[in-house]
Amino acid sequence: MIKLTVDPQVLISLQQAFPTPVNSAFRALNKYLAAIEGLIFNAIQRGITPEQRKLKIFAISLHGLANRGGRIGPDKTRLHKWLKENKLEIVQKVENGDKFRGEYSLVKLSKLASISGQLTVSAKQIDEIKSDRELDRYLTGDESDNAAVFKHLYPELDTTQSQESVLDQFDFAPIDVESLKAFIVWLSDRADVAAGDKLAQSLIHAKTILAVASVTGGIYPQRRKPSPFGRIYYEGVSVQNVHKELRRAMLGNCWEYDMRSSVVSWKMGFARRLLKGAGLTPDAHQHFPATSLYLEDKADFMSTVRYFTFEGNVSLTPEFQLGLIKQALTAISFGAKILAKGWTDSTGNWHNPALAEILQNSLERDRFLSDPTVKAFIAEQKALDQFLFELVKIEAPQLLDLEILNTQSGRVSKSKTISYLYQHAETQAIDIVLHYAGQHGHKPIARVHDAIFFRNRLGVDLKSEIEYCLQQHTGNPFWYLTPKQIKRYNPISIDAAVEERMHLQRIAEEERLAINYF
Q: How far is CA 379 from the centre of its chain?
C-alpha cells in the first residue's frame, strides 16, 4: 500500500494551531494522509504515463481530497484548505482538472512529503534472492501492507464473511497464487527494461491481485458494476481489464469458452427475417456471402484481408496485423463510421474515428476499406444494422426514449441502439450457457463479456448440447462456442535450481576423483 511520510513540522504546526482536544491534530493529519494515499493508490491502478512516472506526478481529484481529507477545529475548517493557507501543502497542483468532465488534476508531492510502497518489483533484487522462502516473502510482501490494500479496495468486506452473503455485489475469482508469482518474476525483468509502459502497469496489477489473494486465501473479489447497456462490468482491477497474460497467470489451468464472432453471429440471426420481409429467398449464405465467410472460415477471411491491407509491411508481425484487422472488423460490426477525418466535440476535444485509431497508417486504412471482401462485409453489416434499427421502431419503440441511446445533439444513435440490443442478447446467451453447464457440474471461475472460463473442459458432447440449447432458446443458428485451453505459469523454485546445480557439481567431482584414481 502507498505510504506517505511527512516532515514533523507539519504536525507541530497543526498541534500549535489546534491544541485541543488532545491528539485531534494527530488524528486529523493521519486521516488526511490516508486520503492522499488512497487517491494515489487509485491513480497508480488506473495507469501512469511514462512522463508522469518520470516527473512523479499523479492524477487525482483535488475536490475528492478536500472532501475526504477531513475537518479540524471548532469552525470545522477543511484540513486541505488550512494546509494550503499555511504553506504546509502535502500535494501541489501541477495542472487543473475538471470534475464536471471527469478529468483529474495532476499533482506532485511537496518537499514536505515522501512516498514509499508503490507495489513495485525489481528484477535485480529477485536475482539476489537465494531461497524459495525468501522469494515468497519478497513477492507476497508485508502482511500489514496487504491488509491495508484489502481494506482500501473493499472497505465493506470482512475476510470472515461468506461469499454467498455478498454475491449481489461481488463476483469471486479463484487465484492460482503460485502461477501469479511466477508471472511476476517473469514480468519483472521485462518491466525493468521498459519501465513506464503497459508491462509496468501489468506488474502493478499483478502485485495488487497477489496482495488481496494473500489476505483472502486465494480469492479475488470483483465489485459488480452493471451497465445499462446490459453487460456486467467490475470496478477497478479485474479479470476483464487486465492483460490476457495476467489473466492467464491469475486463473491458472482452465478452459476459455468464447462466443464465436459474437456480435456478427447475433446480427446474422436476423438475416432470414430480413430476407423474408424483403421477399427474397431466406438463404443467408447467398445474400450475405462476406459475413458468412467471416463466420465459417474466419482464418481465410482474415488472412486474405491482412495480405491486401499490409502488403509489403514487415515492421509489424503477422499476428499484430491480424489483431488490427480483427479490431477494425469488430468496430465496423458495432457501427463504426467510415470517416477519414476526425472532429472536435462541444468541449473542444479532438476525436479520431474508430478506424483511424485502429489503422493509423492512412494508406493501409485505404487499402483495407477498398478491399472487395471488406466492402461487401461493410455493406452487409449496414443492411443488418438498418433492419434492426427499423425493427426497434416497430417492436420496441420505448427504447428510443432512453437517454443513453442519444447522441450529444439529442438524436437517437443507431450504433448505440445496436450495441444496447447486442449486449443484452450477449448477456442472455452467456446466462443460458452457464445454466446448462451448471446442470452438469461446471461452475465458472470467471466471466469476460462474451467469454466464460471453467476450471475443466466441457467436452465435445456437452459443448454441442449447450450450443444446440442456446440456438433453440434464442432462435439463432449462428451461436457457437470456441474452446481454448489456458495453461498456468510454471512456478519457479530457487531451491530446486540450487539443488540441481549442487548435484551436477557432485557428479563432476566424483568423475574427477575416479579419473585421478585410475
A: 32
Residues 89 and 131 in one domain: no
What rounded mean pLDDT belongs to the chain? 89
Q: Are residues 95 and 178 both part of a single domain?
A: no
Q: What is the model's pLDDT at position 163?
A: 86
Q: Are residues 73 and 88 in the same domain?
A: yes
Q: Tell me the whole-structure pTM to 2 decimals.
A: 0.83
Q: Residues 241-290: pLDDT tens digits?
A: 999 999 999 999 999 999 999 999 999 999 988 998 888 888 888 999 99
- Residue pair 381/333 in contact by the 8 Å Cβ criterion: yes
**Domain match, 162 and 229 both:** yes
Segment 229-235 long-range contacts (CB within 8 Å, at least 24 positions apart): 229/404, 229/419, 229/420, 229/423, 229/424, 230/420, 230/423, 230/424, 230/425, 230/426, 230/427, 231/423, 231/426, 231/427, 231/449, 232/171, 232/427, 232/447, 234/171
Domain holding 61, by residue range, is 3-116
Angle at 226 between CA 222 and CA 232, to 5 degrees: 65
pLDDT of residue 326: 93
Q: Which of 253, 276, 308 is the last residue of a domain?
A: 253
The pLDDT assigned to 48 comes to 80
Per the structure, the count of domains in the chain is 3
Residue 491: inside a domain: no
